[in-house]
Amino acid sequence: MKKISIKSTISIIASKITIFLTKTILKGGTTFPGKVALKIDKNILKKVSKGYKVVLVTGTNGKTTTTSMIYNIFKESGKEVITNNTGANLFPGIVTTFIDNYKFFKAPKESYAIIEVDEANLKYITKFISPEIITVTNLFRDQLDRYGEVYTTLSKILEGINITPNTTLVLNGDESLLGKLDIPNKTVFYGFNTKINENKNIEINADAKFCKFCKSPYEYNHITYNHLGDFYCTGCGFKRANLKYAVNEVLELTPDSSTVKINDLEITVSQSGIYNIYNALCAFSIAKELNLNDNSIKNSLQNQNSSFGRQEALNIDDKEVKIILVKNPAGYNQALDTLCLNNDKFSAAFLLNDNYADGTDVSWIWDVDFEKLHTLNIDEILISGMRCYDMAVRLKIAGLNEEKFIIEEDFESLTNKIKNSSNNKVYVLATYTAMINFRKYLYSKGYIKKLW
Fold this sequence. Notes:
alpha/beta, 9-stranded mixed β-sheet, Protein-Tyrosine Phosphatase, Chain A, UDP-N-acetylmuramoyl-L-alanine:D-glutamate ligase, 22% strand
């Protein structure tokens, strides 16, 4: 048995019992068991994480998908690896993950932990864990009532990084806010060396338009989306760092997948959208930093399963339903760009909630470019969620045909409309708690086999 104090032993046992009860009775619950453990031993994370090589994934968008991609690459490589695959990325949820995988009588061997971390919680994790790698995906406005503007989010992340100066940072080089940080850590960057389109003009509502040093507006050799791209400042000379890992060519974009060349390796990403190419590029970069082989990376990314509302594909009475989590303007616009890759008719559902986890201020939907939907052949526009009428107003102002609007406040009626849709393909774009609750309803009806 591993050497561990009586207090820590009680903490782990109490948490494991709570995990069992929440899984069997509540069919979920990944935060409360960690709270139970921490109530008994506030330092328990340091003890249960011992022996793991840890990768922490943080940032505004793409954390859950990127974490899943990295985890699957490690599994494909035959490594012992754990992860918080439900997206429970707050301090107690991460404690739960390590305790759930803790074995009292198993001798430690080389294992990895790929852990998604909420931006504001990074400092609580690095207080107890010295990770091999911390990666930051991007920084966008998100839940302004909780995070504030992007510079506030960056400062919260840096608080966590400053605790662990020996950790390697793998950062999105196309994210100007992550360039030239005043930190001692070894840092490598990934990004796009190729353009997606001819646009070099930043969106009016982009989140980081001005140089963080001299406040001059950025210029771009190319823009991928929002403020991400090959930026440079004509005022002070600040520019994108050299990229160690890069998308050098985009070979194909479809509604279901993308094929790109990362460095010299051609990879098909089984999830569509530029943002998922970024997620795959991040996973590629971390895998290479930890010396995993190209075949494992390539095979894993082309067989990556979407789950838990991240382009999750479902069959509902022979309707092909894809659930896409949307939570801020940058991510929502990327989801709409994915819809724009369709040439055939389809239906779309827009679910908007304003719970704490969604952001209680829904004014951000006015920064989403719903106007681009004009070009699409959308037969039915389904609208639901706690703030469904706010969404209906936004879509009407965007110029969508209100005669196609179908407003359903409860999930049973919404699901019936989906089942009776005139189209076989239905996209469901939902904010976080709307996605969670809709999935719970679908699980209760047998359309989803695994809730968490």
